[in-house]
């Protein structure tokens, strides 16, 4: 069963609690929280205080996507704030193995993310240690960008690596996912779809989430 993780990046931040409730009621499986520092990516979003406030008001698992430099400094803060899955970019550290182990040791599920231009072989010696791989299908930094078509091949290749190595690793796809392309992304091997603008810009997020999961309307 495909899971959908709405990204709050496209929510109305002045009403964050209601916006989170809106997707929870609409059938979201996870809440995707994009953390940006203005260095690793050219945008700045939220940090641990916002996440821990939301944690009191939302029962969905928190899927926290760190797009920051020096992520090792903040692992503990994000886990204490409520991250269930903590995703770090392989491009953001020279010690990915240590970082993944420290996420696991501190009690969250570790995931690694790859920018569109980063080859899959960056995962060769870390794949078996992670809960999930996030493949970026836009260049990270902003919501509402277009899906990079060439990434379908990358999703298929990652899926076949996981199958060949007989691993229990989930594939999350993030960036430009909508009702039109969800099926081919899932057919390529995705297990979890992140969707920001497609869910939040819709007057009927429940129907969008069902379409992303390829379920018939209620
Ligand atoms: C982009 C973020 C995404 C983004 C997705 O840097 O990592 O999670 O919010 O938004 P859409 O679905 O609008 O591309
Ligand atoms: Zn994201």
Automatic annotation (TrEMBL):
GO biological process: pentose catabolic process; pentose-phosphate shunt
Reactions the enzyme catalyzes: D-ribulose 5-phosphate = D-xylulose 5-phosphate
Residues at the active site: 34, 174
InterPro entries: Aldolase_TIM, Ribul_P_3_epim, Ribul_P_3_epim-like, RibuloseP-bd_barrel
GO MF entries: D-ribulose-phosphate 3-epimerase activity; metal ion binding
Pathway note: Carbohydrate degradation
Keyword field contains ATP-binding: no
Chain sites annotated for binding substrate: 7, 65, 141-144, 174-176, 196-197
UniProt-annotated binding residues for a divalent metal cation: 32, 34, 65, 174
Keywords noted in UniProt: Carbohydrate metabolism, Cobalt, Isomerase, Manganese, Metal-binding, Zinc
Gene Ontology cellular component annotations, sorted alphabetically: cytoplasm
Cofactor: Co(2+); Mn(2+); Fe(2+); Zn(2+)
Family annotation (CDD domains): RPE
Keyword field contains Nucleus: no
EC number: 5.1.3.1
Regions annotated as coiled coil: none
Cofactor binding description: Binds 1 divalent metal cation per subunit.
Physiological role: Catalyzes the reversible epimerization of D-ribulose 5-phosphate to D-xylulose 5-phosphate.
Sequence similarity: Belongs to the ribulose-phosphate 3-epimerase family.
Protein name (database record): Ribulose-phosphate 3-epimerase
Natural source organism: Thermosediminibacter litoriperuensis
Gene from which the chain derives: rpe
């Amino acid at each position: 069963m495909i899971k959908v993780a709405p990204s709050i990046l496209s929510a109305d931040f002045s009403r964050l609690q209601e916006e989170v409730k809106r997707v929870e009621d609409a059938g979201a499986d996870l809440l995707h929280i994009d953390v940006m520092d203005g260095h690793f990516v050219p945008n700045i979003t939220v940090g641990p205080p916002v996440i821990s406030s939301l944690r009191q008001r939302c029962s969905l698992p928190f899927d926290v996507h760190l797009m920051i430099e020096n992520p090792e400094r903040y692992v503990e803060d994000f886990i204490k704030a409520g991250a269930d899955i903590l995703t770090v970019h392989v491009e953001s550290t020279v010690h990915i193995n240590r970082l993944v182990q420290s996420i696991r040791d501190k009690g969250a599920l570790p995931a690694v993310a790859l920018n569109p231009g980063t080859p899959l072989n960056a995962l060769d010696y870390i794949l078996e240690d992670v809960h999930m791989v996030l493949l970026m299908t836009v260049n990270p930094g902003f919501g509402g960008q277009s899906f990079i078509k060439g990434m379908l091949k990358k999703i298929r290749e990652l899926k076949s690596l996981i199958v060949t190595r007989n691993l229990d690793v989930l594939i999350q796809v993030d960036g430009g996912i909508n009702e039109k392309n969800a099926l081919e992304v899932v057919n390529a091997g995705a297990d979890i779809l992140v969707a920001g603008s497609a869910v939040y810009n819709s007057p009927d997020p429940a129907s969008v989430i069902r379409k992303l999961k390829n379920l018939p309307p209620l």
